[in-house]
Protein 1
Amino acid sequence: MRSLPLPLALTARLAPVAVLATAGWVMSSGPDTTRTAEDSTPPDGGRPSASAPATQAATKTYAAAPAPCASLAGKTVASLVPGAEAKGKELPSTDAKARRTCSWNALKGYDYRWLDVSYEVLASDEAAQKSYRERVADRSGGGDVPGLGDTAYSVVNLTTEDKQQTREGTVLVRAANALVTITYNGSDFETRKAPGTDEINKGAIKAAKEAVAGLEGGRG
């Protein structure tokens, strides 16, 4: 079987994806600035003033993003991205403690597959909930994925460029103060068709389940 180079349209489409992934996600939350209030004793030795209540330190389930390239089993990578190296490639991050992404992609014959696993650890559950809601709102047409993290959402979209179809699935998961994002897409350069919706959706959810289990490596 002869090899087939990536079409210019797909190459152009993937280039900005890689750039965006490298830049990392823009987090709506800042660093954890929670502090513990000190006791305040009045000069007369009385009780602390009621106007200065104590502040409890927020509990963070996950303190750091785990290693994303170790999140998937080798057999999972082989089944979802045939021909890709199991070790994957971690993309540079502006803050590796807060967010990390690993990418696998390969062209085997005429079939192309691309898979990203991304972790993001926020300062609190509330911050993660807010970010999760905003991201789901930007991706209409999908549905909830029960039994995955605290809450999860999956959506699959089909795009056509220069008569070449590409189908992409995205799974967003919130688990406590962490977000997991899976991006999985594919194209067939011989038929110019895309893989079926069910194949892409199930593949993305399978990767999401393993990636969520991998969060344990970032527990505080």
Protein 2
Amino acid sequence: MKKKNIILLSMLVFVPISIIAQSLHLNPLIIFVTSGLAIIPLAALIANSTEEIATVIGPSLGGLLNATFGNATEMIISIVALRAGLVDVVKASLTGSIIANLLLALGLAILFGGLRFSEQSFQPAVARLNGSSLTLAVIVLFTPAAIQFTSDGLPSSTLNYFSYAASILLLIFYSLMLLFSMRTSTPTDFLGDADDPTNESNPHKVNLGLQVAVLLTCTLGLVFVSDILVESLDQAISTLGLTSLFTGVILIPLFGGFVEYITCITFATKNKMDLAVAVAIGSSLQIALFVAPILVLVGWVLGQPMNLSFNPFELVAVAMAVLITNSISNDGRSNWLEGVLLLITYTVLGTAFYFHP
């Protein structure tokens, strides 16, 4: 068993620890940290079982399964927080996930890959398509702010109705993008699939029943742990003296995206930058085009209205992340200095969110 897998499996101990910490009513900060750490191995097991199942059911259904469960962690945490009425935290975590995937995950991958190989390459055509899709997401996110800025006395229901319509359109585009990717020879480039197509056929036989059981069990466990995390959120924020904006944009995405960051670095150090870029940018696309629209519609059903009107500074940060990622990825080549550039940008934005009132 790989060292990485052993470490992740050993982190499952945080699942019972977080449950015990909550039942004993320990310091909310302890509950928040232990439940956040418990999310990491559960997310890793969900990702692994999804990939194992995908190898059995074939590329088409497998691609659909990966696209659906690719950001299951962020989706579950957000739905639990949305049910608790923490709409602003949900919005912040969505923008934070997009920013972290584009700047932190991709930056780490390019840096570590560049330290081992002087220059790495990936498909510029795919990068341009992904970049254009991210630009579409930014346009949609900026539109409610533009409507508000250019209108006086606008009722909130108007933005809600716009968000419902825009969410449906984004889901249609995401479905078409998924269909398009399944019909190409390299679907992983568009879906952000963490599976490695360069490997030979799996040397082990997949136990489909076991993997389905693992997927369902870990998903249920993730719902339970996310509920503990969200319950401790307000008091933990007060204890740390942080704002809900910083917690949502910076801290929560670190728990949910940790596995993807490791995956990106692993691919990059094996000189498989195509896959590293696919995971980082593909995950951001899934958040923007699938998770966010689904949450808007789920909020409508739950009676917790959530629209696509985000904090202006969050929008500016997302636009910056998309702009600098597109400028770096368009030529299809990368080096370690570009990785540092992305990481510095993420640190600057993180610092700004820390000081933002």
